[in-house]
Amino acid sequence: MKTPLPDPIARSLHLSLLHMGFTPLDQQWQYDRVISPFSRMYLITDGEGWVSHNGQKFVLKPGYLYLIPSFTYSRYHCEEYLEQFYLTFFDELEEGLSIYETRPVRYEVPALPHDRLLFERLLALNPNRAIIEKDPKLYDNRPEILSFNQRADQPLPDYLETNGILLQLFSRFLEGQTDQENRRAQGLHQLSAVLQFINRNLHDKLTIEQLAEKAHLNVDYFSRLFLSIVGVRPMDYLINKRLERAQLLMMTSRSSLKEIAEQVGIPNIYYFSRLFKRRFQVPPGEYRSRARFG
């Protein structure tokens, strides 16, 4: 039997808890085209509702866990009554990737018998993180969410236990990797120095020569290797990451579009707007309005 290769990318995963709570919902819980810079997880305890995202509709049933990834348009609906534990979180990998880019995940899984106890313990460790406003369009995109998880007042044992429970719950959604996915993970690890360099320097002007030098390869070979592993050319990947960072800043800061364009390394606002519309089929100003106000 072949021993599966270790996944060095996923092993650098860090999850940061933002919100946590337990709430009853009713027919007012009906929202469309919600998009968030963080992920959501639900444990349903009673009632019924549904969510849809990634082209799929999921009926929310008691005894099941549900995951809604970050930067995913989603819909929420409750016909009569629904009770749920909920939490929201950021995911981070050292390479600047999202876990959703590197591993297959499920969006609905049966809860294990002790998962409710884990949610209850997480709530006891984090009693002041409840969402007061139930409309996700109103609470998702506050500028302060980026600093919300910086809990300097939380004792270290509580912080470590919180992160351990969060990782344990998230692990329920991870699927096993195929040989091809394992090889891709190894390839991404091979490019980790370059990916980290890109993620940390999106505000700077970067060239293909700089990236190839970081990988200690000549430009032609580096470009072919990057394309074979990541699936896009290096400079296309760089532009995508600049635009994704712009998405996050639009939703979580009060900076002007011009300032955001400069912060992600595309200082020409007209060029930035053209790239953004080409990628997301909507101008950046309209995108920001949708993200903030639905």
Task: Give me some keywords for this one.
Arc Repressor Mutant, subunit A; 4-stranded antiparallel sheet; 9 strands; Jelly Rolls; single chain; alpha+beta; 43% helix; 294 residues; 5-stranded antiparallel sheet; 2 domains
Across the major sheet, the strand order is 1-8-3-6-9
The profile of the biggest β sheet is: 5 strands, antiparallel
Structural class: alpha+beta
How many domains comprise the coordinates?
Answer: 2
How far do the termini sit from each other? Answer: 51 Å
User: What percent of residues adopt helix (DSSP H or I)?
Assistant: 40-55%
State the low-pLDDT regions, or none: 1-5, 140-150
Per CATH, the class of the largest domain reads Mainly Beta
User: What's the number of extended β-strand segments?
Assistant: 9
Annotated CATH homologous superfamily of the largest domain: Regulatory protein AraC
Radius of gyration: 20 Å
Shape label: globular
Q: Tell me, rounded to a whole number, the average pLDDT.
A: 86
CATH topology value of the largest domain: Jelly Rolls
What is the annotated CATH architecture of the largest domain? Sandwich
Describe the overall structure:
The protein is about 45% helix and about 20% strand. The protein is an alpha+beta fold and about 290 residues long. It folds into 2 domains: about 10-170, Jelly Rolls (Sandwich); about 190-294, Arc Repressor Mutant, subunit A. Strands 1-8-3-6-9 form a 5-stranded antiparallel sheet, with helices on one face. Strands 2-7-4-5 form a 4-stranded antiparallel sheet, with no helix packed on it. Helix 2 (about 115-125) packs antiparallel against helix 5. The longest helix is centred in the last third of the chain and has 19 residues, at about 235-250. This is AraC-type DNA-binding protein. It holds the Pfam family HTH_18. GO terms for molecular function: DNA-binding transcription factor activity; sequence-specific DNA binding.
